[in-house]
Amino acid sequence: MASGTDARARGAHIERLAADWLAGRGLALIASNHQVKGGELDLIMRDGETLVFVEVRHRADTRHGHPLETITVTKQRRLIRAARFYLARNRLSCPCRFDALAVTGTPPALDFEWVQGAFEAF
């Protein structure tokens, strides 16, 4: 069984690959694995004038469900709260979007499914 440190390192590696994949589609990385009060923001990126908060979810396979299914309403609320804190702390006022990026497989054989505007701040 893998230790928590191994899991964190693996998660950070997947997030780096995800950021590179999104950068190849025109987004610019602002921050990754950003800890804020109330939670963690996996990737903060810019898409033109829009600040994009990207939740990265990885599963080696979909035998136990698709990675996107793990972004529950509770998780969405936590991400929204973390994003609001980030915006306030950095005194930002700009269009924002919440995206989800499902990553399946094991490196280097990864599949990416990008859902722009995966959920709204409510």
Question: Topology, please?
Answer:
Layout: H1 4-23, E1 28-36, E2 39-47, E3 50-59, H2 73-89, E4 96-106, E5 109-119
GO molecular function: nucleic acid binding
Family: Belongs to the UPF0102 family.
Organism: Halomonas chromatireducens
Radius of gyration: 14 Å
CATH architecture annotation name = 3-Layer(aba) Sandwich
**For this structure, what is the CATH class?**
Alpha Beta
Number of domains: 1
For the termini, the CA-CA separation is 39 Å
Q: List the secondary-structure elements in sequence, H or E.
A: HEEEHEE
CATH-assigned fold name: Trna Endonuclease, Chain: A, domain 1
Net shape: globular
Instruction: Tell me the major beta sheet.
Output: 5 strands, mixed
Provide an overview of this structure:
The structure is a single chain. By secondary structure, this protein is of the alpha+beta class. It has 2 helices and 5 strands. It has helices spanning 4-23, 73-89, and strands at 28-36, 39-47, 50-59, 96-106, 109-119. The radius of gyration is 14 Å and the shape is globular. The termini are far apart.
Briefly say what this structure is.
The protein is an alpha+beta fold. Helix content is 30%, strand content 41%. The mean pLDDT is 92.
Relevant terms:
122 residues; alpha+beta; Trna Endonuclease, Chain: A, domain 1; 2 helices; globular
